[in-house]
Amino acid sequence: MFYEIVSLIVRRMSAPTDPRTPPRTPRRTAPAASPDTSRDASPDASPDASSASPGGAVSRPRPALDWRLRFGALSLVWGFSFLLIKVGTDGYAPFQVTFGRLLFGTLVLVAALVWKRERLPRGARTWGHLAVTALLLNALPFSLFAYSELTIPSTLAGICNSTSPLWGMALSMVALSEDRPTRRRVAGLGIGFLGVLTVLGAWQGFHGLDAAGTTMALLASLSYPIGWIYIRRTLAGSSESNLSLTGAQLLLATVQLAVVTPLFTSAPTHFALIPLLAVIALGAVGTGFAMLIQYGLVAEVGPTTAQMVTYFIPVIATAAGVAILGESLTWSTPVGAAVVLAGAALTQSGPRPRSSARSRTPVPASTQADDQT
User: Fold this and answer.
1) What is the pLDDT of residue 62?
2) Which of 120, 187, 295, 369 could hold 11 in an S-S bridge, CB 3.0 to 4.6 Å?
3) How does this protein lie in the membrane (predicted)?
């Protein structure tokens, strides 16, 4: 669900917001400060690159679990998130589901901060920007998806979520000077939105479709790229660690929901067990642990490969909704979803900039970061 979010959080410490403004050089810390910081320094490094460092450099230990298995696990976790939202809203109000999700996700990241002996960011300016990103990337879209699934199936919500790369590319071409429109990108956007119309059954006048629920799901998907662009304009070059920034962001989103939820819902009189377990799993596994897995993937295989999880999420969400929840499926849903994903893939494809030297010397993260949203 936040496939690009985490990739951009990992990369935002190096991505410049404007070509006229040189990126800030990240503050180097002592090697003993954090045993894992060397892994985050080069997100595009391959699994074999670390063991072939020149000059007798100490090799980083390989992860115990192959990245392909973690990639598959992440696809399953995020694909099932829409099913968990649906089950959670069967017993609790949407704001309560979102609050629980953020709470349990925050607890996982706080535990990771304690384990790694890292601290939350400092500075009022950083916290102010994180409050905005928490709203745009967590509190608002999570709440909109929860409300949308009151009236639309989880399969449709998962497919609407897959439009985020399309919204992101369209907005970045307007708001970010380094993302310039090309024929390939424009064609991808056109194909992608044609797929959206196919999913929605535009030729039938959107018959049988709940307009409010679908609109909320699409707005949730639109909220993500707005948040990504805000990050690139405000927090690029931050010297804080990725885990610290994300932990603070989820913490602020939890506080926001803690304030809003009592205003729109009353406290539950009883706690339905199955929906409660769904909310716990959605937060702890689908939000907290999933983000930690994504960090490792981005650091090991790079954001481009890690971001491919985008194309598996709607497939798994659809399969889970049909097989487990018994949701109906018409031909236009999978066909339209395939067209959406093809358009999204086209907008993000194209020639990659070649490295000036394919040497075995480590390359700074600022020169390796992908420019995809």
Assistant:
1) 62
2) 369
3) Multi-pass membrane protein
